[in-house]
Design goal:
Aspartate Aminotransferase, domain 1; alpha/beta; four-stranded antiparallel beta sheet; 42% helix; eight-stranded mixed beta sheet; 14 strands; Aspartate Aminotransferase, domain 2; 400 residues; 2 domains
Length: 400
């Protein structure tokens, strides 16, 4: 550890990226994927599909490579993708977005989030409010930006926040309220009263709202509602999304962020020193994807709903208590009845015992709230139907 700079070491320690002996800790995803490879278990841990996206999108990428779109694209993104993002926001949500001033393309949503936090955080007195459990990069990005992470727990069975706890967590030191909706890892979709309270608190305390909406087209029971569409929200909201989850192209890393021009300029100032640009032939392909007919997006949500049903039925038959998701890739189940009151230990044993890999929800929770989620396990449903059916069969045999 002596050759690792102290500033990085402090940041990594604050984000939980170092093990007890000071070494760089592997993520739970790397650990469990290695377990899947070692045991031959079905990997329902990491959230990536095992099917390719629509042919039109894949063909557009091949065509872009063939016609020479292989060098640096413009820093903000190619104009056609910027226009397609603007058209998409107007078409689905009625949001008016200036493609030349209010949008930038990023290396996935994770870079968009990191660049945004680095751009908007002023110092260690700033706080970022997030809902817990939270996507694992959030804590790392907040620590890297030098701010304080303040969490609001999501309570079972529906994983909605207590509005009183939310109000108590937002104060005049709150620089950003970070909202992931539909939510990873719980599969929750926030109700209108939650979204309205977020906006009220942001206005009251002059905070910026940053949204992670990568599962926007995978909401199962009602169309997604971007928080930027609420009264008083657009002028203080940066909306982040990406193509990976919508078009089964997670490896392409094409994301975007849009919002008020002055905030986008601040984010771009940071982003240009991170990846600079990315994905030149993939950007025109995603522009094609965003212009696909409505039926594509409806069919994608319906297909994933069916996959969750297959997985959920297998989990219930195995003895898990299932929390049905309202959106996104993941189903959360309680393993307590199967001896899984310690979900981390349960998941480490599951590959060899059941031939299936999952992720403990405690991997997405801060140290002080581990006990609240101790028996909960996250399974990815974004796999082929036959893979999920085999996983369900293995889980049923395990629970018998």
């Amino acid at each position: 550890m002596s050759d690792i700079p102290g500033a990085w070491r402090r940041t990594a320690a604050g984000a939980g990226l170092l093990s007890a002996d000071g070494a760089v800790a592997p993520t739970i995803f790397a650990e469990m994927s290695a377990a899947a490879a070692r045991t031959g278990a079905i990997n329902l841990g990491q959230g990536f599909p095992d099917e390719d996206g629509p042919a039109e999108v894949l063909d557009a990428a091949r065509e872009a490579i063939a016609r020479g779109a292989n060098q640096y694209p413009p820093g903000r993104g190619i104009p056609d993708l910027l226009a397609a993002i603007s058209e998409h926001q107007q078409r689905f949500y009625g949001l008016s977005v200036d493609p030349e001033r209010e949008v930038i393309v990023t290396a996935g949503a994770t870079e968009a989030l990191t660049a945004t936090l680095l751009a908007l955080i002023d110092g260690p007195d700033d706080e970022v409010v997030v809902f817990e459990p939270y996507y694992d990069s959030y804590a790392a990005a907040v620590a890297l930006a030098g701010a304080r992470l303040r969490t609001v727990p999501l309570r079972t069975p529906d994983f909605q926040p207590d509005l009183g706890e939310l109000a108590a967590s937002v104060n005049d030191r709150t620089r950003i309220i970070l909202v992931n909706d539909p939510h990873n890892p719980t599969g929750a979709v926030f109700g209108p009263e939650v979204l309205a309270e977020i906006v009220r608190l942001a206005v009251l305390h002059d905070a910026t709202i940053v949204t992670d909406e990568v599962y926007e087209h995978l909401a199962f029971h009602a169309p997604h509602t971007p928080i930027a569409t609420l009264p008083g929200a657009a002028e203080r909201t940066l909306t982040i999304s990406s193509a990976g989850k919508t078009f089964n192209t997670t490896g392409w890393k094409i994301g975007w962020v849009h919002g008020p021009a002055e905030l986008i300029t601040a984010v771009l100032t940071v982003k240009q020193y991170l990846t600079y640009v990315n994905g030149s032939p993939f950007q025109p392909a995603i522009a094609v994807g965003l212009r696909l007919p409505d039926s594509y997006f409806a069919d994608a949500a319906a297909a994933l709903t069916r996959k969750h049903e297959i997985l959920g039925a297998g989990l219930r038959a195995a003895g898990f208590s299932v929390h049905p998701p309202r959106g996104g890739y993941f189903t959360v189940a309680d393993a307590t009845a199967l001896g899984g009151s310690d979900a981390a230990a349960f998941c480490r044993a599951l590959p060899e015992r059941a031939g299936v890999v999952a992720i403990p929800l405690t991997s997405f929770v801060s140290a002080q709230h581990q006990a609240d989620y101790a028996g909960l396990v996250r399974f990815a449903a974004c796999k082929r139907v036959e893979v999920l059916e085999e996983a369900a069969s293995r889980l049923v045999a395990f629970g018998a």
